[in-house]
Amino acid sequence: IEVLRSARPESRFLELVHRLDRDTSGLVMVAKKRSALRFLQDELRHKRIRKHYHALVSGHWSEAVKRVKAPLLRYEMPNGERRVKVDDAGKESLTLFRCLQRYEGYSLVEASPVTGRTHQIRVHCTCEGHPIAGDDKYMDDVSLKAFRAVGGQRLMLHARALEFSLPVTGEPMRLEAPYDDAFADVLKILEARNRNQ
To answer: Is 170 part of a structural domain of the chain?
Structure first.
């Protein structure tokens, strides 16, 4: 947000409507007016803004897994790092899933969080046995090393689309963000491997 503010000094008000994890690429909303910020945050709170993420996960995602409802609890590691785990004492969390493509050893899924918990998609994928590729918090070291061997350098989680209604007019909007080069390059490598089998 600071980079955006310095690039647009004529804009008197710029505020993030929501956040992404540091390693997640893709679409993020920025409000240019306080009234828009309040409206959009209220829409998020009432689950009227639909978020769609694309994630490359390890293994073959089952068509049967369309929703993961598992309570999430934030905790701190001995070294001070914050993490999240599935725990009955945690907050109710729900993510909807759809498998988009399968590759050798990986699946591309669309994840649509209904609730908005920290690391929700990452932990819900992991609890299904399919951590997100490149996730150095929730993926085991062997799988992480195998992902690096195919050219993966980052967390393969991308905020792909947002669906919402405009204030005042109620006009429906769908915004999409293309993959960045790092995400797209890994998918190209995996597609080439699929073709060569």
So the answer is: yes
CATH of the domain at 132: 3.30.2350.10
Tokens 């070291």 correspond to what residue?
141
Active-site position among 21, 135, 181, 185:
21
What is the per-residue pLDDT across 89-120, written as a single tens digit (0 to 9) for each? 999 999 999 999 999 999 999 999 999 899 99
Question: Parallel, antiparallel, or unpaired: how do β-strands 106-113 and 157-165 relate?
Answer: unpaired
Q: Which domain holds residue 138?
A: 50-195
Which residue reads 């792909």 in tokens?
160
Question: By the 8 A CB rule, do 173 and 165 touch?
Answer: yes
21 belongs to the catalytic site: yes
64's CB contacts (< 8 A; 6+ apart) are none
pTM exceeds 0.90? yes
